[in-house]
């Protein structure tokens, strides 16, 4: 111990060491618990979103087709009136 | 290619350079960072009791500003270990990665 360059090691009070280790373990448990809780919640949400996505894509496709048809019709009318 | 060939020797020299310092760190850590032993429990209990009695009797108001600052800093450091533990528990540094 005498060969240490920064003097003998400090005797940390057992209370501080106990506090550090217990907070560390409490934090690990808290983090793991909330990680699993939140990831479960998120997988549920993902499933719902996947279901909704099918419906939404269908609707967007229809709307796009209607808009394209309307545009085409408007263009045709414009061409017809110019002649 | 040349850099990749140099890598093992670089790592080896880094390890040999770091070894003495790491040994010094270990000798300090074995005393300063060890988890509390079962034989420390009476001292821990006494410490908690002292903390509570100081809080109740108002003895904490009689500290000097320097002592109070140091106590606050030590208390903050101890509490921050909780957040280190949380980061380890959730296995991500910022936020929860779900």
From TrEMBL, chain A:
Q: Does the keyword Membrane apply?
A: yes
Subcellular location(s): the record lists: Mitochondrion inner membrane
- Main localization is mitochondrion
Q: Which keywords does this Swiss-Prot/TrEMBL entry list?
A: Acetylation, ATP synthesis, CF(0), Hydrogen ion transport, Ion transport, Membrane, Mitochondrion, Mitochondrion inner membrane, Transmembrane, Transmembrane helix, Transport
From the record, give the transmembrane residue ranges.
Answer: 12-33
Gene Ontology molecular function, alphabetical: proton transmembrane transporter activity
Any single biological process term in GO: proton motive force-driven ATP synthesis
Q: Which domain of life is it from?
A: Eukaryota
The Gene Ontology CC terms held by the record are: mitochondrial inner membrane; proton-transporting ATP synthase complex
Q: Which family does it belong to?
A: Belongs to the ATPase e subunit family.
Function recorded in the entry: Subunit e, of the mitochondrial membrane ATP synthase complex (F(1)F(0) ATP synthase or Complex V) that produces ATP from ADP in the presence of a proton gradient across the membrane which is generated by electron transport complexes of the respiratory chain. ATP synthase complex consist of a soluble F(1) head domain - the catalytic core - and a membrane F(1) domain - the membrane proton channel. These two domains are linked by a central stalk rotating inside the F(1) region and a stationary peripheral stalk.
Q: How does it assemble?
A: F-type ATPases have 2 components, CF(1) - the catalytic core - and CF(0) - the membrane proton channel. CF(1) and CF(0) have multiple subunits. Component of the ATP synthase complex composed at least of ATP5F1A/subunit alpha, ATP5F1B/subunit beta, ATP5MC1/subunit c (homooctomer), MT-ATP6/subunit a, MT-ATP8/subunit 8, ATP5ME/subunit e, ATP5MF/subunit f, ATP5MG/subunit g, ATP5MK/subunit k, ATP5MJ/subunit j, ATP5F1C/subunit gamma, ATP5F1D/subunit delta, ATP5F1E/subunit epsilon, ATP5PF/subunit F6, ATP5PB/subunit b, ATP5PD/subunit d, ATP5PO/subunit OSCP.
**This protein is called what?**
ATP synthase F(0) complex subunit e, mitochondrial
Instruction: Report the source organism.
Output: Bicyclus anynana (Squinting bush brown butterfly)
Lineage of the source organism?
Eukaryota, Metazoa, Ecdysozoa, Arthropoda, Hexapoda
TrEMBL record, chain B:
**UniProt KW keywords:** ATP synthesis, CF(0), Hydrogen ion transport, Ion transport, Membrane, Mitochondrion, Transport
Q: Which GO terms describe its cellular component?
A: mitochondrial membrane; proton-transporting ATP synthase complex
Pfam families in the record:
ATP-synt_G
Q: Which superkingdom, per the lineage?
A: Eukaryota
Q: Which spans are transmembrane here?
A: none
Question: GO molecular function terms here?
Answer: proton transmembrane transporter activity
**Main subcellular location of this protein, as a coarse class:** mitochondrion
Q: Name one GO biological process term.
A: proton motive force-driven ATP synthesis
Q: Where does the UniProt annotation locate this protein?
A: Mitochondrion membrane
Record flagged with keyword Phosphoprotein: no
- Which family is annotated? Belongs to the ATPase g subunit family.
Q: What's the protein here called?
A: ATP synthase subunit g
Which species does this protein come from?
Answer: Bicyclus anynana
């Amino acid at each position: 111990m005498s060969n240490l360059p920064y003097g003998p090691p400090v005797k940390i009070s057992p209370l501080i060491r106990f506090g550090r280790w217990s907070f560390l373990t409490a934090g690990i448990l808290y983090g793991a618990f909330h990680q699993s809780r939140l990831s479960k919640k998120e997988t549920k949400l993902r499933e719902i979103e996947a279901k909704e996505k099918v419906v939404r894509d269908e609707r967007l496709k229809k709307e796009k087709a209607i808009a394209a048809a309307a545009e085409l019709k408007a263009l045709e009318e414009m061409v017809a009136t110019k002649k | 290619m040349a850099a990749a060939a140099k890598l093992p020797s670089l790592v080896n020299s880094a390890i040999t350079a770091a070894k003495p310092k790491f040994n010094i760190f270990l000798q300090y850590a074995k005393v300063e960072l060890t988890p509390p032993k079962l034989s420390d429990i009476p001292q821990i209990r006494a410490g908690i009791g002292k903390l509570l009695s100081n809080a109740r009797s108002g003895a904490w108001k009689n500290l000097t500003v320097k002592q109070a600052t140091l106590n606050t800093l030590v208390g903050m450091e101890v509490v921050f270990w909780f957040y280190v533990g949380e980061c380890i528990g959730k296995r991500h540094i910022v936020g929860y990665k779900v």
